[in-house]
Amino acid sequence: MLVQFKEALDLLKKGHLVAIPTETVYGLAGRIDLELTLRSIFETKKRPFFDPLIVHVGNIEQVQDIFFEITKAQKILMDHFWPGPLTIVAQKRRIISDLISADLETVGVRMPNHELTLKLINELKVPLAAPSANMFKKTSPTCPDHVLNNFDNSVSVLDGGDCRIGIESTVLEVKDKKVLVYRLGQITIEQIQEVLPEYKIKKVKKDKSPGSMNDHYQPKVPLYLIKNQDDLKKFKGQTGEELILDQSAAISARILYKSLIDLSNLGVDYIYFNKKNIPKDPQWLAVKDRLEKASTKI
Ligand code: TXA
Ligand code: MG
Predict the structure, then answer these.
(1) Do 29 and 20 touch, CB atoms closer than 8 A?
(2) Arithmetic mean of pLDDT over the chain
(3) Could you state, in order of their start, the residue ranges of all structural domains in the chain?
(4) pTM beyond 0.85
(5) Which residues does a 6 A CB cutoff place in the pocket of ligand 1?
(6) Are 224 and 298 spatial neighbours (Cβ–Cβ below 8 Å)?
(7) Which residues does the chain have with pLDDT short of 70?
(8) Which CATH architecture has domain 2-169?
(9) How much is the pLDDT for 279?
């Protein structure tokens, strides 16, 4: 059910979960200092415990209690991109639960760019662990209705409207003079390079980044990526709908998950998207990554 700010705050205080709005996607949030709460995040999503959670902070001071230390490079990234769609992974303090970090020595932190959620975390005075508010491997929610449908109305949702960005944050870790990018979001490698000119920025292969799988974000019916109409011949007798995106990468990101969810609710057998519609532009890499992971091989 939808809840107001005050109720969301009370529920979180007591250790319950609340779905929170962010600029990227809705998150299924719980306070980071209660093991039972953290456990219920995984159980509600049917998420395996090897997939680490992102911690959401309301101010930079909170990071001091989460990271073992804050380096100059990390501070530069925070100053440039926070609040915003950038998750920074770094050595964690021992007090941070192993459930959050999936037994790794590191933890991912970001400051979401959403007024309501920042206010919520700052009034609670405890950071929130929040994965995207969808069942494991399924499409991430970009509005309150998506969250309500994902969990059959059983989750409390704080209504913060539609997500402005629409795909998950860029996740990275600074190591020596390198920046390892585990997941691309709206913030591109070029933007990171600009603020850290002396660092080598490397995109890490999918199978090397924790919790990252090749079959994520999957809609209810298969999504096929095609090169031309002929690729659809083998689905004769079935009904398909085309996914249409925009010419702008930012707008495409914003409508991607909503379009996949809407199309799969039409009662068609499959969705298709022509790969030729994706320009070879760094801005498009994150959308391309989500399309690939959401798709089923023909
Ligand atoms: O935009 C977002 O990041 C959204 C909103 C809710 O903030 N959250 C989100 O969380 O996408 P989730 O749980 O769906 O994705 C978290 C991913 C993990 O699967 C993993 O790939 C990466 O973040 N991650 C988290 N902690 C990590 C760590 N210690 N090392 C490497 N990757 C990590
Ligand atoms: Mg997710």
Answers:
(1) yes
(2) 96
(3) 2-169, 223-294
(4) yes
(5) 22, 24-25, 27, 51-54, 85, 87, 89, 101, 104, 106-108, 112, 130-132, 168-169, 171, 182-183, 209-212
(6) yes
(7) none
(8) Alpha-Beta Complex (3.90)
(9) 94
